[in-house]
Every structure is written in C-alpha cells, then in structure tokens.
Amino acid sequence: MAAAASSRPLLQPLAQASAHNQDGGAGSGLAGCGSAGAGWEWRLAGSGLWWPGGGGMKLLRGPLGVALGLVLLLSPVQTVEPISLGLALAGAASALTGLISYPRLYCYFRECCLQREGARAGAALQGDLDKKLFGQHLVKKVIVKAVTGFLNNTNPKKPLTLSLHGWTGTGKNFVSKIIAESIYEGGLNSNYVHQFVSTLHFPHAHSIGQYKDQLQSWIRGNVSACGRSIFIFDEMDKMHAGLIDSIKPFLDYYEQLDGVSYRRAIFIFLSNAGAEKITEVALDFWKSGKKREDMELKDLEAGVSLSVFNNKNSGFWHSSLIDRNLIDYFVPFLPLEYKHVKMCVRVELESRGYMVDEEIITKVADELTYFPKEEKIYSDKGCKTVFTKLDFYYDL
C-alpha cells in the first residue's frame, strides 16, 4: 500500500478537458452556454470560454476563461452586450482570485479535507443514529458525545480512538459508516476515509513485518495529506496479535512525529471479541428484572476491555494500545431482541418504498434464531440477514 498524498491543480475540477478534446468538444469536463445579445453566443467549455470576436468565435483558454464563464453562467441575467463582455474580462482575474482564495467554493466542486463543523456533524450523527439504529442506547450516547466533542476541540491531545464490540449484526459496521458520513459526505467512499479488513489486507501471519511497515506508511501518508483522516479496522478479532501495536505511536500523546501531527485523526476498531461479556451483563439485567435501558457504560466497559486484552484470539491480545490506555472508549453493542429485529425490518421496508406489512415483518422476525437456548431472548445474527429474507418475500 502506498501513501495517497498527491497534489492537484486547484481548478482542475472546473477546467480539465479530455486529452483527445482540448478545445471543449464532447469530452469536456464543463459546459454551459448563453446569449451575449442579438446574434452573439458564448459557450463555456472544458478548456475555456468561446466568445464572439473577429468575425467568428474565439477561445479564451485556461482558468481566466473558466472564471469568466462561471461569472456568466451563474449570473441571473444570461444576456450581455458584446461591449459588456470586454468589461467582464477585466474583472475575470479578480473573480478567479476570489475563487482560489475561497476554499469552500472550490470544495463544492471537489472533495476537500474540510470536515463539517462539530455541531453540524453531531446533529447529522444524532439524527441518523436515532432513525436507523435500534436497541443500542449506550452506543448512541457514547458515539455522539465522543465524536462531537472531538470535532469541537480545536486542540485535541491525541487522535480519537474508538473500539466497537459486540456480536455480528448488532450494528458495528453500520455505525462506523454513519460516523464517516457525518463528517464526509462521501462516507466510506471518501478519499479521507480508509477501511481495512483483517482477513483481506493482512491475511498471512508470516508477513506481519511487511504489514507493519505498509500500515505505518499508509497512515503517515494519508494523515500528511489530510489531518482529519478516518481509519477503520474491521475484524480485529481475526487480526494477528502484535500487528496493531505498530500504529501505537500514531495514537499516543505526541504533538508531532517526524513533522506530522496525528491529533485530529480518528481511529475506529470493530471486533466480535468481548461479545460474550456483553451478553453476560445483558442477561444478568434481564434476569434481575432491570430494564435494558438502565445499563450504563460503567457496567460494561471495564469488563469488555479486560476480556479483549486477555483474548488470545483477538488482535488486541496483550496490546499496548489497551495497556497504555490509548483507546478512548470501548463501545458495547448489546445483543438485539425480537422487537429490535422487527424495527429493522420495518425501516428497511420504508427505505425501499414498500407498504409496511406487519404480517411480513412478523414472518421475517420469526424466521431468525434466538439465544440462549431456553430463554431465546436475543437474535444470534442481529439484523444481519433481515434484508435478504425480505427480498425472498417480495420476490414471491
């Protein structure tokens, strides 16, 4: 893996034309047209602005032409006299200067390393979690406070490091996706969000040394390009022990390492490890007649971190990340109950534009298997297979 730290021309999203069509033909990256008065036409192409002059059409190439074209294109009045076009040329340079000096306008055309403000990201995060995540009151509370607080902090002492734990289908991947989307509109497809899957990216135990070097290089390169980079590590329970410790320096309390600050980055780890401990606590609450919603983070976090640290089948086994308290929050995902599965089915129906059919919702929920064997309280796959089972019913 190589670092993605390339620089790009500032106006490339606006002015780039295809290699085989430099004069703004069918392959142009940008096009627009309008009237410059009776018999006068202008056309904005990928390589500049076509405008009338000298008995024909002339091309004003480059950023100046594009800037003028944008002025004309965005103008509420799409008719100008030929003489006005000449006057507009004089102001095009200042328009271009303004375009360059206003990064948020540039970022309208191309993704930038500009995160949403903490308040906006927090509101988006809270809204999505409330609408789409069920049965995870602890997750909502911890994630919203941790992420919003971190984004609002202008001088964090270290990167934000979250470790999400729980059974398959309880929402770990889903929540990491929502976090990414709250900060970058592209979510997991953003240039500044990087996802690693242990079994895919680090499959061979004999290559751990190579993986360590590649991982450090990848993180260093991407944080150099964007301080607000997000790194997601999935299947931590399948990662080779010792590998994740290679990124310990990036998570520690350093102002800079080799001239790079990692303090604004976000690291998210996903793991099934610790799920047994979470279920044990949840069952104890249920058997004692306590409400699920009465569980607090303090009832679970210490037990989960200890369980993960001592789990030989976990990538966190005796990890210095835990030993040095570099993980800010161990976030427990509770096993989902029957009522939560039905909520998942209902929301999926609505998202597909189908009429909500309570009979189908019940049938899908009833098809899943539940544990423990006698009590049958929790879905053993969470909401993971809900969507494919729904496809079956609607295909019929």
Structural notes for this entry:
The chain has helices at residues 12-15, 62-74, 82-101, 103-109, 118-132, 137-152, 172-183, 198-201, 208-225, 248-251, 275-287, 301-309, 320-323, 338-351, 358-367, 386-395, and strands at residues 32-35, 41-45, 48-53, 56-61, 160-165, 193-197, 230-234, 266-271, 329-332, 370-371, 378-379. It has 396 residues and is an alpha/beta fold. The strands form three sheets. Strands 6-7-8-5-9 form a five-stranded parallel β-sheet. It has a four-stranded antiparallel β-sheet with strand order 1-2-3-4. The longest helix is centred in the first third of the chain and has 20 residues, at 82-101. The chain is globular. The two termini are 45 Å apart. Residues 1-31 and 35-40 have low confidence and may be disordered.
In short, what is this structure?
With 396 residues, the protein is α/β, with parallel strands linked by helices. It is 44% helix and 13% strand.
